[in-house]
Amino acid sequence: MKTSIRPEVGDEIDAVFEQIGRLQGSTEEITDEGVFVAMPPALMKGLLDQVIWLQTSETQRRHLRIHPREPQTSIKLNGTHTAHPATLVNFSLSGASLKSDVTVQLGDKVTFHNFTEGKVVWAAEGGCFGVEFLRPFRPTEFSWSTRL
Questions:
Q1: Who has greater pLDDT, 141 or 41?
Q2: CB count, 10 Å around CB of 88?
Q3: Dist. CA 92–CA 30, nearest whole Å
Q4: How far is residue 73's CA from residue 83's CA, in Å, rounded to a whole number?
Q5: How far apart are CA 74 and CA 146, in angstroms?
Q6: Bridge partners (DSSP) listed for residue 108
Q7: Can you give the chain as a three-state secondary structure string?
Q8: What is the pLDDT of residues 44-96, one digit of tens each?
């Protein structure tokens, strides 16, 4: 969490954010950028659920989402040559939601069919994850027939 206040390690944090609600925990580490806050597992689960809801909520999105006619696709991770099957849940000018059995980490590079590239920006249980495209589509390139 970025903050201008510099707590000590172990200090209790109780903060309220407009989009995600209340965050409570204790300061675990202090960096030049801010602090790392350790939260109880139940609160972390609630925070993760809220962040995923924000990622998938139509009212919070920057661009219209399209549900593909052909959802089956393949992806390659971090520049490897191994293709992994994936299901494209939906996509927009700037990113896509997918589901796959392959394990992804935040920041992983994802390539679709050797040309559309992005990075993993969120991941949830059950193999669902979101990718932000490295080069967003232009509105003139984007339609129901767009293929990643």
A1: 41
A2: 22
A3: 36
A4: 10
A5: 15
A6: none
A7: CECCCCCCCCCEEEEEECCCEEEEEEEEEECCCEEEEECCHHHHHHHHHHHHHHHHCHHHCCCCCECCCCCEEEEEECCCCCCEEEEEEEECCCEEEEECCCCCCCCCEEEECCCEEEEEEEECHHHEEEEEECCCCCHHHCCCCCCC
A8: 777 777 666 666 554 454 556 778 888 899 999 998 999 999 999 988 888 99
What does the block give as tokens for 93?
């000018």
Closest CA to 98 of 69, 119, 127, 121: 127
Query: What confidence score (pLDDT) does residue 20 get?
Result: 65
- State the Cα–Cα distance between residues 10 and 29, nearest whole angstrom: 9
Please name which of 95, 97, 103 lies closest in space to residue 77, comparing C-alpha atoms: 103
Structure tokens at 111: 């390539």
Q: How many residues does the chain have?
A: 148
CA-angle at 47, arms to 12 and 121, nearest 5°: 120
Contact 122, 106 (CB under 8 A): yes
Burial status of residue 144 (CB atoms within 10 A of its CB: 0-12, 13-18, 19 or more)? exposed
